[in-house]
């Protein structure tokens, strides 16, 4: 390459090459580990930065060693820099201990269905939390919601930031749960069953507090709660040789209901909802597949509806009310999403019966609210088929 002649007028008159300014990026030493690995700017939000929250990643911070010659590496400076994170960690540990204690003494009992599930929601859940992040964070999530409910009832001031706790522990629990689901084994299936059941309680709580105007069918609730079915199916396979496992015990109570569903038992309770005569036939196209989807749905809901004249709530009815979304076909949920009147009419009967669980803190008046909201959406020609549930709502 020829050298430039700086000793001649030709070299002096040659226009100088324009150099592009070199961009320097100051490396952050305090961003979360995920953002530092991905080399993106971190807003250093605690406990979850905005990038990790948006992408659904596990967010964590680690203290970085000082660079050579960095005077901030002295003991006093290190102490000063780590104090906010240390104080936050200590505060979070105390909060989690408080939530864990509240769950072990109060929340677990409030969720259990009679004596048969006291151990599962009590000591078994607490012991599993010592080994599973998904279960531990699920416990913190439910405990925070239960504490907030009790404080609201008693009129006392909220001692914890419920919205922040819910967001944080739901995020952490889901991340850990999804890791388990990606590789289910006999070693972690119990934890997956416990966490899935905890999420079902959380989903009922959301149903209780969702806005109903403008009305939209509770499709997300049906799908999220129904997702537990996939975990339970896998648990039956993995725990088959270990009948003493938590997964086997939790699924045993539900699977005789699944067998009933397959045989279309109890469909006679709501057989009138399969009426396809004028003017009902104008509301949707009909086929053998459509008939089977609706027959299965009225069998599942009919198994609950047959208890409508009961004098008190029995454990079997309680169980059926909680697991119903697990038993509905995806096609039926799609019909609900399309607001097909027949699907909504079937759902009304379930929500009327859900009022039996109104004393459960995580359900409250969800059944009553949802039933009336659905009725207001149904065409006039369907009201005649719903005289009994309407009468039950008006008399309550």
Automatic annotation (TrEMBL):
Residues 31-61 form the Zn(2)-C6 fungal-type domain. One of its GO terms (molecular function) is zinc ion binding. SUPFAM superfamilies: Zn2/Cys6 DNA-binding domain. Residues 72-91 are annotated as: Disordered. SMART domains: GAL4. PROSITE patterns: ZN2_CY6_FUNGAL_1 (PS00463), ZN2_CY6_FUNGAL_2 (PS50048). It holds the Pfam family Zn_clus. The keyword Nucleus applies. Residues 76-91 have a biased composition (Basic and acidic residues). Keywords: Nucleus. InterPro entries: Sterol_Uptake_Regulator (IPR053157), Zn2-C6_fun-type_DNA-bd_sf (IPR036864), Zn2Cys6_DnaBD (IPR001138). This is Zn(2)-C6 fungal-type domain-containing protein.
